[in-house]
Amino acid sequence: MSKFKNKKNNQLPEISTSSLPDIVFMLLFFFMVATVMRQNTLMIQNVLPYADQVEKLDTKLVMNIYAGKPSSRYTDMGTEARIQLNDKFANIKDIKTFILAERTLKRPAEVPFLITSLKVDKETKMGLVGDIKKELRAIQALKINYTTNTGQAKDNFNQ
């Protein structure tokens, strides 16, 4: 008399996982492209000064020297401006070995085109910058670039 049958197997169908590897590789590729690798971890305060006549460097042959007061995480290093080479604090005398080590990492044809970029906090005294330049002059690293923010020079005094 009953036309409706009672189903005893009420299981859900299995989820298809055939597209799962495609999704995983798509996400992996996205994060590989979108992630920016940081070259150096700044251990100093580095608020760059403003300048109105700024040009962008188009070369990858740049060695960075940072100078400024230690950041709040490194208060045990004092309050005077310090030099940072790669990921460690350094003295003036360490600049020579740093530059020579960077030169050995490059091909001999690229060495004459290496540029030393000074990323100096705007509160840093010029005496430290002069000492850095003197040390660079002693090892014939004469191509020096000062990294700044784009803006008016008068903005350096407003903040």
Largest sheet: 5 strands, mixed
Kindly report how far apart the N and C termini lie.
91 Å
Mean pLDDT: 88
- H/E order of the elements? HEEEEHEHEEH
Structural class: alpha/beta
Rg over alpha carbons: 28 Å
Helix content: 25-40%
Structural write-up:
- This protein has four helices and seven strands.
- With 159 residues, it is of the alpha/beta class.
- The chain has a five-stranded mixed beta sheet, with helices on one face.
- It is elongated, with a radius of gyration of 28 Å.
- The mean pLDDT is 88.
In a nutshell, what does this entry contain?
The chain has 159 residues and is α/β, with parallel strands linked by helices. The protein has 4 helices and 7 strands.
What key attributes describe this structure?
elongated; two-stranded parallel ribbon; five-stranded mixed sheet; alpha/beta; 159 residues
What's the structural blueprint in terms of helices and strands?
Elements: H1 20-34, E1 50-51, E2 62-68, E3 82-85, E4 88-90, H2 94-105, E5 115-120, H3 126-138, E6 144-146, E7 149-150, H4 155-158
Parallel strand pairs: 1-7, 2-5, 5-6
Antiparallel strand pairs: 2-3, 3-4
